Amino acid sequence: MTTGRSVLIAGGGIGGLCAALCLARRGFDVTVLERSPEFGEIGAGLQLAPNATRVLRSLGLLDAVLEVGVLPDRLVLADVTTDEELTALDVTGFGEQFGGPYVVAHRSDVLSILLRACLADASVRLLTSKTVVRVVEPDAGTVRAECADGTSYDGDVLVGADGLRSTVRKLIDDSEPVFSGYVAYRGAVPTERVAARSDSRDVVAFIGHGRHFVQYPLRSGSFYNQVAVFRSARYLAGEPNWGTPEELETAFEPSSARIRTALSAIERGMSWPMYDREPLTRWVHGRSVLLGDAAHPMLQYLAQGACQAIQDADCLAYSLSGAVEAGRDVIDGFTEYQQHRMGPAQRTQQNARVWGDIWHTDGLAETLRNAYLRERDPNDLRHVAPFYALAETCSHSVRGGLSRAEPSPA
Ligand SMILES: Cc1cc2nc3c(=O)[nH]c(=O)nc-3n(C[C@H](O)[C@H](O)[C@H](O)COP(=O)(O)OP(=O)(O)OC[C@H]3O[C@@H](n4cnc5c(N)ncnc54)[C@H](O)[C@@H]3O)c2cc1C
Questions:
Q1: CA–CA gap between residue 81 and residue 249 (Å, rounded)
Q2: End-to-end CA distance of the chain
Q3: pLDDT in tens, 38-87
Q4: Is residue 244 part of a domain?
Q5: 27: containing domain
Q6: Is residue 85 one of the residues assigned to a domain?
Q7: Which of 99, 136, 167, 317 is buried most deeply by CB count within 10 Å?
Q8: Ligand 1 binding site (Cβ under 6 Å of any ligand atom)
Q9: CATH of the domain at 142
Q10: For 60, which DSSP code?
Q11: Structural domain contains residue 247
């Protein structure tokens, strides 16, 4: 039995760094093994819903995120061909309704805030250029991460936060990611390059058959995040050379003038084919456990992947510290973590697919969808409450009730 507090984390993305911090704040010694030569995120935006901002607040990081982020007024769905606003959700009251605000921020700003907090915490060791290639258990109470450069690291438990193509996940599952047939182009551009809605604090998704376009302001409105997503007809036809910038242009030809202008400013240097995976029946293998995209990669239509990873991090730290404080093996905490997080995270993963189908539908289904959206009460929270609800939170520090000692923010 190991009541030790030494944790290895494979992967230093948003999920891995947030887990490092949550665990360190609860008294664990953490080593993060990151594959890249430096910690970093791509130059695009990130929506952070109350289920994530509650955790960031409990870590004492929300103010820093708010400083570099934007508090949007509304989440809007509009028609990509006519610009007609179909429905909107007022998010300005989310702080009171769900215990945390809805924030949009630059990904690299969010990662830098997590990184700075990790660097300031003596219990977190951050190692880069460490690609975990194998996880073994050399004896009953130890897990070992072996890296591509020949080094290896021992701990009491290991967290696989190594993303969509997780190496740690292979301990449990040998399936491949599932390609949705959709490709994204994205990036943050100076606001003056995007005439459309540049004065707005809304997060807008312009939706339509086989494509959508998302816009929202970043960095006090000086930048605009833009995401263009389309179904690759060439991929579906089995042709080579799919998902190219030319195909992007063709996919958005039947779009409003506003969207065509916005599209001309979108980065074309890199594209992201959109993958998810089928839900797992367990996230635990021996002394290893999965978190974030390694556990439940999802399509981005609910803007919840990173939010769910942040929730995982909080819950995992809460559950592992509960096991250790009760004098039990630290891995006993895996069960509580999995019980609390697997259901909500996998429901979100599955709902994201449905949400995508609803956004991209055509014909009669599109007509019915638009009719429903036009009549929707803007204050109706039924569709989002399940993702943001406090009831889905396992940690008492984030929930508000204190049933056992909670860490204080730095
Ligand atoms: C277009 C798009 C828009 C999105 N928008 C949102 C949004 O608005 N809100 C939201 O909440 N989510 C959003 N998401 C989802 C979100 O980006 C992911 O869910 C989130 O980044 C997952 O974080 P993670 O830390 O689990 O994984 P990752 O961010 O993938 O991080 C994994 C880390 O592990 C490292 N790594 C990989 N393999 C190894 C290895 N073998 N050894 C060591 N290190 C390794 C990688 O280098 C990386 O740093 C979006 C996704 C897309 C594609």
A1: 14
A2: 31
A3: 999 887 899 999 999 999 999 999 999 999 999 999 999 999 999 999 99
A4: no
A5: 6-70+106-175+280-359+376-399
A6: no
A7: 317
A8: 10-16, 33-36, 46-47, 130-132, 161-164, 167, 184, 186, 227, 272, 292-293, 300, 303-307, 309
A9: 3.50.50.60
A10: T
A11: no
